[in-house]
Design goal:
With 43 residues, the chain is an all-alpha fold. 86% of the residues lie in helices and 0% in strands.
Amino acid sequence: MSRSEIESEIRAKRRAELRGYFVEGGLGAALFAVLAAQFLPVT
């Protein structure tokens, strides 16, 4: 493998990890919002 191929592989992996963090963060925030709505009824 050439150096540029290796670098593009690393970039792709890093992008996939970032996407995973955003997805998990979004799900966590949504779950927290649902739980907060259950305990704190918005008037």
